[in-house]
Amino acid sequence: MTVDHIPHISLFLLCLANSSVINIDDSPYKDSLEAYLLNLKNKNLNLDKISRTFATILAGAVGDAFGYTIEFMQEDSIKQKFGILQEFQDTASDDTQMTLFTILGIKNMDIHEAYKDWYRTQQQQKNFFTGKSQAIQVRRAPGNTCLQSLSSRVHIKNSSKGCGTIMRVAPFGLFSETRDQAFQSAYKASEITHGHIDGLLPAGIFAAMIFDAVHKIPITYSNYDQFVPQQYLDQYDKSQTKRILQKLQTINPEQPKISIESYFKSNFLQQLHQLGEGWVAEETLAISLLSIQAANSFKNLCILSSNHKGDSDSTASVAGNLYGALNGLKSIDIQSLVKLDLFEEIIFTIWYYYLN
Predict the structure, then answer these.
(1) Is residue 174 a contact partner of residue 48, using CB atoms and an 8 Å limit?
(2) Structural domain includes residue 114
(3) Residue 173: which CATH number?
(4) What is the DSSP string of 28-68?
(5) Residues annotated as binding site?
């Protein structure tokens, strides 16, 4: 199945979201739209879960593109160039690329080979498409740890806890049978490239949270221990991951005014700085969760999770993933997503998982 078979993809997604924005009866694509929905129902697939799956990956990609625009910029530079970056962007980074390859790895039951495929695209060794655009294989500031680990024919353990783990593991929360399986799968997939427990544990916790969100299990932000399986608790109790999540629990997230005069002096940004910059996985998780709790809309979340001096694409991508899983497609302006250069790859990859 190719993207060509989906007429007006954004219209279909609105249909899937049961949005009141469109009237399917008046659509020239009514028959096709109904056929796709019937196909899903005939496979006994849960339309709400599929909606949340699309939302998880799409919202993560939007956050990624938001943050990628200002990644590596200091806050004074952001302020000078953009004031505050507030407009949706079109170019997603390696975070979204690797997330899509994670989905392919889950589908084909070979995560390591899927990541190798991603690595080959980065070295221009393989002409790989999941859809129409070559954006899936363009270098977008890929993480050195991922590149170095995947370049070797033998696994060489390292001590990295970079956010190259957590930014790619949302699909394990979407496609696992249990919360513990989501944690363990994300943890083990992260071991392919990273060796430090504070790179692995945040990835597992995040995938477990995605699992709860997509299954509409209420998430409480007062007890993160619940997302850690029993056999990992000893590691977790000794980790920086637990310490930073405990620090997060002492913070009362504040919704800042989105104005140049106030944002960069806001209590929210100071709270974010207390948690770090997001270059390592536990900081990415904490900053994303802070942003989720402070935001009052999807666009507001993208602004809060990206407009800082740290690893803004990863913090905004992870925050977007969780927001999408929690709120589904109804919470996102679907028409604004079409500008993403990886939009069609996202649609195709999720369809490939469900319908093949």
Answers:
(1) no
(2) yes
(3) 1.10.4080.10
(4) TTHHHHHHHHHHHHHTT--HHHHHHHHHHHHHHHHHHHHHH
(5) 93-95, 311, 313-314
Residue that has been written with the tokens 């997302």 in this structure: 227
- The verdict on residue 76 lying in a domain is yes
Average pLDDT over residues 118-131: 70
Tell me what pLDDT residue 154 has. Answer: 76
In a domain, 16, yes or no: no
In angstroms, the CA 81 to CA 49 distance is 39
Amino acid identity for residue 251 in this structure: I
Angstrom distances, CA of residue 34 to CA of 6, 16, 49, 61, 186: 12, 10, 18, 27, 35
Residue 12 identity: F
The SS3 assignment for 280 reads strand
DSSP 3-state assignment of 162?
strand
Residue 73 three-state SS: coil
Q: Which amino acid is at 166?
A: I
Beta bridge partners of 162: 280
d(CA 122, CA 216): 36
Q: In the block, which residue shows the tokens 């790619």?
A: 168
Within 10 angstroms of residue 123's Cβ, the number of other Cβ atoms is: 12
Are the beta carbons of 324 and 61 closer than 8 angstroms? no
- Give, in degrees to the nearest 5, the angle at Cα 279 between 274 and 285: 65
Percent of the chain at pLDDT above 90?
A: 64
Query: From the annotation, which residues make up the binding site for Mg(2+)?
Result: 93-95, 311, 313-314
Domain span holding position 101:
52-350
Which one, of 172, 16, 24, 48, lies nearest residue 102 by Cα? 172
Mean pLDDT in residue range 241-269: 94
In a domain, 77, yes or no: yes
The count of domains in the chain is 1
Report CA Rg, the chain: 19
pLDDT tens-digit map of 175-189? 999 999 999 999 999
Tokens of 166: 């957590």
Amino acid identity of residue 210, one-letter, is I
Q: Which residues contact residue 201 at a Cβ distance below 8 angstroms, ignoring those fewer than 6 apart?
A: 187, 228, 232, 235, 236, 239, 241, 281, 282
The pLDDT tens digits for 38-69 are 776 777 778 788 889 999 999 999 999 999 99
Amino acid code (one letter) for 349: T
